Amino acid sequence: MTGAFEQLQKVLRRLPGLGYRSAERIALHLLVEKPERLTELVSSLQDCETNVRTCQVCGNLCEQERCSICMNPKRDASQICVVESIPDLVAIERSAAFPGLYHVLHGKLSPIHDIGPEDLNLSSLKERLDAGGIREVLLALSNDIEGEATCHFIQEDIIGDRDIAVTRIGFGIPSGSGVVYADPVTLKSALDGRRAYR
């Protein structure tokens, strides 16, 4: 194979979820089977590089100063769902279960990985709360030590004594799965998050 092909394959392998074989298949598909898609892909990537940025309000992807969710007047502006990453926001949006706005931290506190509060999108969250009108902050961070530490920091240092309800997403057994297949952390979360049954 050529050096350029090997470089393309190497770059593709750096993408999440792509191993050696997948990267090779994609490279061959673009260069041999469907070369017209290569031009389309390059054009699309360049367009994204030029036009896509993070929303100045919430940290989501957008092509203007604010994303479509922040600009949507039908959203409940009194609720903010705090998430670690844009894929988390996308997953919650796909469920159509949350009517409010979002705030993307772009990570979580992790002293082991040298990630402190200054490395996260926390100052703009504080600014949003300072502006007023927020009645609930929903913490939708992962159910691990770093996620819990980040939630605690937000509650103590960002929200503080404001008159804002702080809620946490529930964790538990996935729909269609059984108790026997759940790991201990998931089972503990499911039991701690139990509610009255009618």
Ordered list of secondary-structure elements with their pairings:
Elements: H1 3-13, H2 20-33, H3 35-51, E1 53-54, E2 61-62, H4 68-71, E3 76-83, H5 86-95, E4 100-104, H6 123-130, E5 136-140, H7 145-159, E6 165-168, H8 184-192
Helix pairs in contact: 1-2, 2-3
Short account of what is shown:
The protein is α/β, with parallel strands linked by helices and about 200 residues long. The chain has helices at about 5-15, 20-35, 35-50, 70, 85-95, 125-130, 145-160, 185-190, and strands at about 55, 60, 75-85, 100-105, 135-140, 165-170.
Care to describe what's here?
This protein has 198 residues and is of the alpha/beta class. 44% of the residues lie in helices and 13% in strands. The chain contains eight helices and six strands; from the N terminus they run αααββαβαβαβαβα. Strands 4-3-5-6 form a four-stranded parallel beta sheet. It has a two-stranded antiparallel ribbon with strand order 1-2. The longest helix has 17 residues, at 35-51. The chain is globular. The termini are far apart.
